[in-house]
Amino acid sequence: MIARRCYVSGRVQGVFYRATVARRAAELGITGYARNLPDGRVEVLACGTEAGVARYLEALWVGSTASKVTSVEVRSVEIAPDQRPEGFATG
Prior knowledge:
Blueprint: E1 2-11, H1 17-28, E2 31-36, E3 42-48, H2 50-60, E4 68-76, E5 88-90
Parallel strand pairs: 2-5
Antiparallel strand pairs: 1-3, 1-4, 2-3
Helix pairs in contact: 1-2
């Protein structure tokens, strides 16, 4: 299992971006969260298999039909197995 923290920029707040990436996370078995940041970006934590997270990171560039992603900054993070999220939250 791997974890990636992502910072998504562009038109990603108020356009159902978080709901869309949450649905895609459920489809791919990804756990974590997507939350709005005060600077207009969305922070995403994605935990799962290497293949699943790779596919999910591609989905972050797509988002919802109303969104327009201009940048996805990805960072590897270490999360202890007992601290990994069980589902995917949007908040």
